[in-house]
Amino acid sequence: MSSDVNPFESLQSQIDDAATHLDVGEDVIERLKHPERVLETNLTVEMDDGTLERFTAFRSQFNGDRGPYKGGIRYHPNVTRDEVKALSGWMTYKTAIVDIPLGGGKGGIIIDPDGYSETELERITRAFAKELTPFIGEDKDIPAPDVNTGQREMNWIKDTYETLENTTEPGVITGKDLDSGGSEGRVEATGRSTVIAAREAFEYLGRDIADATVAVQGYGNAGWISAKLVEEMGATVVAVSDSSGGVYNPDGLDAVAAKNHKNETGSVVGFPDGEEEVTNDELLTLDVDLLIPAALENAITEEIAADVNADVISEAANGPITPAGDAVLAEKDTIVVPDILANAGGVTVSYFEWVQNRQRFYWDEETVNERLEEIIVDSFDALTEAYEEHDLDTFREAAYVVSIQRVVDAFEQAGTFP
Ligand code: NAD
Predict the structure, then answer these.
(1) Interhelix angle for 365-389 vs 345-359, to 10°?
(2) Domain range holding 90?
(3) pTM
(4) Ligand 1 midpoint to CA 220 (Å)
């Protein structure tokens, strides 16, 4: 996380805020603010030149009341124990808001992967997988890719685990490619949930998303798929951006052509459909109906929030609005569909992948998309119901109220041991 706000403290204050609307004892809330356990391990790995190097790695298992821990593994120099703990907490509430039978976990290694060869990265990953093996498994904890990890790292973890355990267990990892037991629909899942949730928000306001103008910040997997799918819903994408800058045309841009331009040139900047170039900050404050932040956390600060013109924001990115920005948007009655619901398509289709792996029976893309749609619509309905019932200020609060209550219900039914 790039802000100086401690993410673990942010998570805890979100839980405290939501708890004020719930009839749950402080002792139970205390449990929900801390991970059940954190593995911290020091990996000693041989480099290509024969020297040894030490890497610190973490796996936080935040809450397993609703099912096995679930969450990605990131490789980044800024990984900290507190960041991993916070991310594992957010995963707990993300799996709960979409009501899938999983808990929350997250892992990371403090490393800048650019500085290492592929063979070194393989040894580092396999060393971490060896440490993880007693703690993971399809009924225990199911890692997935995150920042700077992908299919390659997941294959190394899965292979190390299966070798040490002398088993075949594709469901121990999700985010696999199709040949290794991945799911249809996974690549588009995050963008798909972002726009389904946005469509529901417009409907809630008595409006049709087909009439909306849309700006998308970040044109990677989550952003560009959101742009393509919202266009398919009839909306007009007027601005898109990436780390180099953005383009704007009030009459609309072709989302697929913009992606092709980015593939060819490395950026959306210079895309001929764009009437004018805009900076990322300008894009966030354009006069549009729907804004989709799909780049980094903390993009919408207090200052930018004051100038936001969109009526609805659907958070494809994790944490794109700072807490102070959130407060400003709440004052302005901007509807923010929170990340834990808007981008939950990714973890939902990961859940479908796990289900298919366990059944050893695979679904077609239409089935995946239909089931994802049903889950996002039902979750949105649960959110708006809580929003009205508790007379809450924001959809974010409502999402936490629903998800915390679900975790509490599971915990209370199970009780404590011993
Ligand atoms: P990605 O790497 O595919 O794309 C990121 C995009 O953001 C790129 O186009 C990049 O140029 C752009 N970007 C980077 N810095 C920027 C800046 N300062 N201003 C504007 N654009 C910038 O990543 P992604 O998978 O699309 O993830 C984007 C966000 O969505 C992240 O917050 C991620 O945590 C979240 N998310 C993704 C998934 C998923 O399944 N891909 C699931 C849940 C959440």
Answers:
(1) 130
(2) 35-178
(3) 0.95
(4) 5
